[in-house]
Design a protein that fits this description.
Radius of gyration: 18 Å
Oligomer: single chain
Distance between the termini: 36 Å
Number of domains: 2
Number of strands: 0
Number of helices: 8
Shape: globular
Helix content: over 70%
Strand content: under 5%
Amino acid sequence: MTPKQINPALKFALEIGPLLIFFIANARAGIFAGTAVFMVAIVIALAVSYALTRHLPVMALVSAVVVLVFGGLTLFLHDELFIKLKPTIIYVLFAAVLIGGLIFRKPLLAVVFGQVFNLTQEGWRKLTVRWIIFFFVLAAINEIVWRTQTTDFWVSFKVFGVVPLTFLFAALQYPLLVKYDAGEKKN
């Protein structure tokens, strides 16, 4: 059964909204209030997504679980280290899952994006390798930023650095998507 589709603008708001709320709450009340608000916002976004589609995207669900665990540790132990580690852990986890898919010859990006793109096996493999590298690069950047910059800079970078970098990286994959489109005949 295919999940119901929702308006792309609403989907974007559900994905980015909790992060923007985290940014605003952090700016106004600090990292601990921001973390608490982030946790609530991500649960609300998942609930709205589920109510509209009767489906929870795997990546969103994994991200929410990690936010709740590490956000909870941040608040319980009153230590911002845990919320700062959360992106690194998510990026490494996503990269590791994609590596596992390559090892078992099951292109997991095809499972996630197969309804959007129709790529050859080689196309899925190359796209997967690129996303693996990208996730490891994001993990390294997160580690560098949180260890060398202020908490406010780190929060701003998550919103105004990582999000645009991800969109730019995804857009740069267009030539690969065209080249390995399984629906087109190549001469």
